[in-house]
Amino acid sequence: MTTLDDNALKLYSFQVFSKLEGAVTAGMIHLGDQLGLYVALAEADTPITTHELAERTALDERWVREWAHNQAAAKLITVDEGRFGLTPEAAAVLASPEHPAYGMGMFHRLPQTMRALEDVRESFRTGIGHDYDSHGPQGAVGIERSFEPWSNANLLPVVLPAIEGLVERMRTGASVADIGCGAGSAVLLMAAAFPHSQFRGYDISQYALARAALKLEESGLHNAEFHDPREVPLPDDQTLDFITTFDCIHDMTRPSEMMKAIRRAIKPDGVWLLVDIKALDTFEENARKNPMAPLMYGISVLSCMSSALSEEGGEGLGTLGLSENKARAMTQAAGFTRFEKLPIDHAVNAFYLVQP
Prior knowledge:
52% of the residues lie in helices and 14% in strands. It is globular and about 65 Å long. Helix 2 runs antiparallel to helix 5 and helix 8 (136-159) runs parallel beside helix 10. It is of the alpha/beta class. The chain folds into two domains: 6-96, Arc Repressor Mutant, subunit A, CATH 1.10.10; 112-355, Rossmann fold (3-Layer(aba) Sandwich), CATH 3.40.50.150. A seven-stranded mixed sheet has the order 5-4-3-6-7-9-8, with helices on both faces. A two-stranded antiparallel ribbon has the order 1-2. It has helices spanning 6-34, 37-44, 50-57, 61-73, 88-95, 104-108, 110-126, 136-159, 166-172, 185-193, 206-219, 255-265, 283-289, 293-308, 324-333, and strands at residues 78-80, 83-85, 175-179, 198-202, 224-227, 240-246, 266-277, 338-341, 349-355. The longest helix is centred in the first third of the chain and has 29 residues, at 6-34.
C-alpha cells in the first residue's frame, strides 16, 4: 500500500472541501438576491440585527440569522456585535443593478446551471450537449441580468466611440444587427440612442426572444425588431453597416459558418464588433494566468461547451475556446482582412474590431 503523507492528506482534503464551501455559499448568495436580503441591508445605510433584517424582508428571523452567519463567515457581509451590513463595494456587487460591477446575474441562474449536472452526465457518453433553452426561462433572465449592468453603463459612452466613425454613421442612419441578442438589451439601448438607424436582433433562444419582444413593446421603439435566424435569416447581400456579437460566438455549434454568414451580410466598409471571453491559446496558459480558470472550465461543461455541442458536428469551442489568435485565424478564414483588439477595459471580455 502507498504510504500517505498525513499533512498532504489534510491539505488536499481542505482544498476539496473549500470547493464545496464555495458552492454552498454561492447558493446562499442566490438566496440573498432572490429574497431581497442584500437590498434590505443596502437600504438600511447602517448595520442592523437579524431581527431588523427579518422585519424589513418579512422573513423568519431564525432562517435569516443562519444565512447571515454564512455570509459573515465567508466575509461577504460585515458583522460587528451582532449587527450586519454591506461595505459600499459589496453593495455595488450585490445590491445595485444599475452599477456596472453588479454581479447577481450568474447567481440568478445558479439553480438552472447546477441542474444541468443531471443532463450532462449523458452528454459525457453521447458527446451531445444542451442548448441554452434547456436552462428554462430563468436561465435567460440570468443571462440578461449578467450583461445588462456593464452594457448599460459602457456600450454607448465607451464601446461605440472606440470604433472610428461609427457613432456618426449610426446617427445618420445605419443598418445594424446584434447576433446572439439575448433579451435584446443592447439592441434597445442602441435603438433609443440612434433613432435614424434600424436594428435587428437575432437569437435562437425562444425564452430570450420572448423577453426581447416584451421589452420592445414596453419601449415603444419602432426601429428595432427581433428574429430567430432559422426563420428569418441574416441578409446575404452585404447590406449591414454594423454587426455585433456579444459573448456568443464561443457558445455556437458552428461559429465558423456564422462568421462566413456575417461576411456575406456586412457591407464592404462595414464593421463587426466581436466581443468574447478573454482566453489564451493553451490550457496551461489559462490555468497559470487566469485565477477564474476553474470556474470558466466548469461553466463550459454546464453551459457554454454544452451549447456549442448541442447539435451533431458542433465545433465545441467552449468558454475559453476563442483566444485572440484563434479569433483572428477564424475571421481570416471567413474572408475578413482586418482584425484589431480595441483598448476597452473589461474584467472578462476582449473586444475586437473585424472588417472585410
